[in-house]
Write a structure and sequence with these properties.
The chain is of the alpha+beta class. The protein has three helices and twelve strands; from the N terminus they run E-H-E-H-E-E-E-E-E-E-E-E-E-E-H.
Amino acid sequence: MIVGASALSRVSAFDNVVPAQVIGELRAQIIEAQARPPRPGDGRTHWYSLDAPARLLFEQVIQHLRTFVPRAHEFVGAEWWFRATTTDTGFPFHFDRDEGIRTSVVSPALASILYLSNAGGPTVILDATPSRVSAPSAGIAVHPRPGRFGMFPGTLLHGVLPGPSSRWPRVTLLVNWWRSVPRMESAPPHLGSAPPSARWRVDVTRAKLEAIDPSRLLAKAAWRDLISKQATYR
């Protein structure tokens, strides 16, 4: 259990959730996809209804990850995408949301990240939600490691800190878990009961999480401005 806001106590991470061979295959597909010339739809999220057969390796992995997700039976689908970036590239702090809704922030129930490399900076999750007006007071850092699976409440502010330069990219598969289909996504008809999950033999252990003081990253006024802009979609 992490000391801090109750929402941060639900941040967790597990190591070795996916076999090394699967990690390598995923990483190769992601790097190849981002190296080729852009195609229509590239860079966008994908929607996978959890009651549909898993046809892609990504979908097989999502069904496997589902076995680690709390209250997984409540989710109808997974919104997923991937990134391969240079290790000294961060990602701005933001709220995950249904991009089809502009009048309010509608977040997934659960956000998750499968790390496919040990390069780059950590994902930092803060005790701030769209309804919060004060600056965050606590945070958790999850550092990249191949096969590490991190999960946190989908309403929490989060981002990626830059890491040291490296010849190797920072590669991740990102999965948001939803109880209803986001307006942004088009889902196929309900197909009935879910197929058997793809299960691999893995030796899972709980990963250590690092506490982060948000005041080391931004001043309180800057945090309040950032949260306000995120919540109002400016």
